Predict the structure.
Amino acid sequence: MQLQHKVALITGGSSGIGFSLAKRMVQGGASVALVARNVDALEAAASRLRGESSVQNGTSRVLTIAADVADRTALDRLPQTVVEALGGLDLLVNNAGVNHRGLALGNTPDQLAQIIDVNLAAPVYLSRRALDFLRPGGAIIQISSLAGKVPFIEQATYSASKAGLRFFSIALGEELESRNIHVLCVNPGPVDTGFFGDVKKASDITFSQPMSTPDEIADVTLRALALRQVEVDQPQVSGWLATLGYVSPALKRLLRPILMRRGARNKEEYMRRKGLL
């Protein structure tokens, strides 16, 4: 997809993968609407984007919208607000996400429900709202996770939310072929962002796979979008491993202790590198 003169709505756009995608899109000549809860973070992200030459020469524009994707009233207004401010809508990126790490019994029912509300219900709802405004040739990008391809303990509800998003994306893409609207599901492994929260609470197995940067995920996403892929895993080798673990639960159980040991070593090295030890 050519990005010049396109308009993108990006949830969770103030940092991490969302911001990296916004930056790449602006560099390609697109206008972007960033959605996040934190006003200060939004304005800081917008300020950085407005330093890009495409914005300074008037090719691109940047809009910020402070909203909580768990609030459906706010979601109702988003697509029309973007159309009115930026002149149209070509891309929806459902990137906002939340996770409460640890065993299900270690989280409250409200925390588990929030994971489903933010990671699954909100993208489904906003995708449907956006379909009333997306122009032909547009696309919906769902930022899912490799945790949605294979379930692991300490990620039960998160895995469920991302698995649901993945299946919704694939099926929705088939439904929208006749409307010339493409749907891409992106499944990252661990990504070096603030999404980890308290790294000490992150499962060792999360660190068993190679870690990507937000810019790497953005580049993979835009390449897959240009090729009109239905789904892309990053890293690809981790995607293959996740598929094997899903197809063969016995193999997953066999590999789990090995992956946990490797992840523990990688986690310790990561924490040392970040000054957390």
In short: The mean pLDDT is 95. The chain is about 50% helix and 15% strand. The longest helix spans residues 249-273.
